[in-house]
Each structure stands twice: as C-alpha cells, then as structure tokens.
Protein 1
Amino acid sequence: MAQGRSIRVVVSVVALAVMFGLGWVVAKTGAGQAVPTESLTDLERQFTERMQDVVLVGNFTIEGRETRGGSPERYELSRVAKVDDDQWRFDVHMVYGSVDVTLPVVVPIVWAGDTPMVTITDFSIPTLGTFTARVFFYDDRYAGSWQHGQYGGLMYGAIEPLDAD
C-alpha cells in the first residue's frame, strides 16, 4: 500500500516537473503564439472550440501495478490553440498535492482522420529525462499511453465542461 502511494507521488511529481519544464521552454523560445483562426481547417477549428474551458477527468495506470481502474487525474484546459504546422499550445491548470499551477504546454498533434492525437516521442527535458506519450481526443473522451523511464501506463477519461463540477 505504501509503495503504491509512493509511486503515485513520484508520478505526480514527474508530471508536474514535465509541465514546468515545458512551460519554461515555451517562455524561453517565445513559442506559443496562436495562428489566426481563419487559417484553421474545419477540424482544427472544431477541436479548438471543443477544448475551450473544459476539464479532462479520468484515471491513469502504472503498468505492472494493481490499481483497480487507475488513480484519479484532472487537467483543466482554458484554451487549446494551434501555434505552428503541427504544434499546439494547451493552457492547462493542474493541482498535485500542495502545488496549484497553470502553464502553457506546446506539443505536437497529428491527425488520424478526424481524431487529433498528442504525440511525444523520446521528448527530452534537461535534468528531468525522456518522455513518450500518445493521447487522442474523440467526442467526449480522451485516452492514451505514457512512458517515463521505467514507469508507464495508460490514461483515460472524459472531457467535460469546466463548469460542470
């Protein structure tokens, strides 16, 4: 039981560190300025509208650990905007333990037909490590896989209006 809690804390700290690292990179590079709305395709425009003021409420698992449905996760998104060809900025608010933070996170998105998918492969952040993830969004759900070093697993849940709570 204590080991499971320790792993949950480690995963939370790593996720928070990743978000801080990505936010730092965005701030340093000046990346993240949204492209004009009129230049978006219909699917891109629908995605930005769908992901405005929403919360991702779900669970994550750690491979090899019995978690009976996973551990809870929550990401509040105030805005998602296209900033370059395949780069999108997620303005995300999250709470992990006593840390409460809102950060801009720029990630690549590829499209599988009408389905947007965040794709990070061997994404290195100095002093934090290398991360790989695939997370897709469809209708009112999100799901995917994540990996960081020896830890990895699945994440899944619902996309809900931010004011639904």
Protein 2
Amino acid sequence: MLVLDSILFLSLALLLEPRFGGLALHEWIGLAIIPLIVVHILFGWGWIATSMVRLFRPGLWRLRVNALLNLLLFVALVVTCFSGVMTSFVALPALGIAPRNFEGWRILHNRSEAYLEVLAALHVAMNWSWIANAVSGLVGGGSNRAGVDSTAAAKAPVSQP
C-alpha cells in the first residue's frame, strides 16, 4: 500500500504543475492515475466499510472528520479527472475523441483542482501517523518511536484510523 500511495503522491505532485513535463505528460499521467486511485480505494475498502459502521458512535470525531475529508477528496478527484479528460488536447485526440465545450470544462477543472490540492494535503496530514509508521517499518524495521513493532505492522492488513 505504501508503494501505491507513494506513486499516487508523486503523480499528484507532477500533475499539479502541467508545465513541468508539458501538457502531453500531464494528460497521460492524469489518465494513468485513475486506475491507481481505484486500486487505492479498493485496498482501503476494509477501512471504509468498518468506518461506515462506526461513524455514528459517540465520541469518534476524528473518524467523522476523516470520513468527510475522504468523501470530499473523492468528489474533487472525480470532478478533476473527468473535467481534465474533457479538456484534453493530446490524450483524447490520440484516442480519436474530440473534446467539446472546452472553456467550461477548463474552468471546472482548474477550480476543482484547487480544492483537490487542499484536500489531498489534509488527507496526508490526517493520516501522517500511519504514513510515518509504514515508512519506519520499511526503513528501520522493528519498533518505531511509538514502540509499535513496525515490521509486524507493515505485514498486517491496512487499517487506517
């Protein structure tokens, strides 16, 4: 999961600045990231299902905030990806599809991308302890600063807080 998350993070960083690698690279990475996001969600499905059951129990404010954040992130991601596909100058025409209403889709893409940036940063921040523990397990092996056996934690099924 950490490898997939790292690829998603780096891809998102590249996508945030289309001028870095050019429009063609931006569009193809944007298309390539869609199945990776689906896999990320499928890997986290156990957490999603468990969270939905626990969501309305008293005192679980962090879980509620995280669930709302993930929902908003998902919506922003879908809107950004779809509007990005609809504004394609390179990838869609290469697949034989001509974009329509370019200006409207471009405005929606730029606005949703701005929300996506903020929500993705908050998503990383909310899950930083999981990220730190997973990295600690891969890099150091054994126990991390919290005294958790990170080798065992790295082998355990993913369960985000």
